Structure formats: structure tokens, C-alpha cells
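We store chain and fold; thus.
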Amino acid sequence: MSKILNDLVNLWVPRRCFGCNAHLYRGERYLCAFCRHEMPLTEYNFGKENDIDRKLYGRCRFEKAVSLLYFERTGLAQTLIHALKYRRIEPIGKFLGTWMGASLVQDPELPKIDWVIPVPLHPVKQRKRGYNQCALFGKTLAGILQANWGENYLLRKGTGRSQTKENRGLRARNAQAAFQGENLDQLGNKSVLLVDDVITTGATLEACCLALSETSGKPPRIYIATMAAVL
């Protein structure tokens, strides 16, 4: 019955591909099969060094980092993530989390993850948007990896203004003061997957890793997964 109702809804309000605007058929979500095949996958894994690792080396304590997609200006990844962030299409987070989770569970180099923790939004920005764009992505990964979901270990301070037009040095200084950890002793010696939407300069993830490592006991082992990366 649900499939029949879904087909009737698509007949009157047809779903369209974010990439080419083609009609989406049963089983397709947000992207048609052709556009999904054209998405710029990084194919990074937790076994081999990649450009994100090199971007963060020497800046913070972390084990390994991966991204699902390359973020290209005016590209398909940008279209999809901008729809998630600015058009309030929150389920795209689950779509990308399911996609990435399917590869992570097959990665023999990724250890058992105890906690999945999102990069937090500033409360003002989250109230305005209505949700953290990383949340559903991270919750989906937590479910697939059979890990705990922890959104209360990192807090965001500061003004909450966008840093997309600021240079790397200014981003880094702002980010250092923007995050603080809470109840970090509960994460001691645990494996943590820190998730974010897009890594650009790495300043935000650097600051989050530093905040998560400020514990009186043994710090968590931090792994990083993002939807996309600007390289």
C-alpha cells in the first residue's frame, strides 16, 4: 500500500533529481542513477594517508580522517549540501550518512567506534535553521556502526557568524575560542568519530579535536568523517 501511495504522490508532485532535474523513479532519492554515478567520490579509507590527513597533521591529536565527496564549486556535492543547509531539506543528512556508512562498515582499518559526535552549531544559528545539518548524518552513521550518539560533549560559543569568507589564519583563531568540551572523562580512552559537513581549512575540526582532548584522564582516540572536503 505504501508503495502505491508513494507512486501516486510522485504522479502529482514528481520528485526531481538535484543534479539534472530528471524525474526520480522508485528507489531513487535526491539524485538519479546517472547523477549519483557522477558524484565526485573521494574513495578515501582509514588505511591509507590522504589529503585531509595531511591538512590536519601537526595541528591536533587525531587518528585518521576521511570524506565521502570532493566539494567542488557549482558541483553536485555543493548543490546537495547547500540544499541540506540552506533549503532545510534535513533528510539529505540521512541520505549521505547511509551512503557513507555503507563504505565505513566495510573498511577493515576502522576500529570499533564507541561514540559519534557532531561538530555543534552555535545555538543562535541552530534555532534559526531548526537543526544541526550534521546531526542526522551523524545519527545515521552511529546506527550503522552500532555506536553511541553524543551531541552534548562539544559546545559552541562565540558569535555563530559564518566564516566562509574569512582567511585561514582568522578562521583558526576564531575556531580555537569557539568550542569547549563537556563531561570529557566519559570519553577517556574511547574511540570517537567526529563528524562535520565540509572540511575547508580544517580550523573547525582542529579546534574540536583540541577541545575533546582536554581531559584529565586518557584522551579519546579521534577519527574524523565529513560529507565532503575542499582540497
Remarks:
- The two ends are 46 Å apart (CA to CA).
- Strands lie at 64-70, 115-118, 148-149, 154-156, 179-181, 191-199, 221-229.
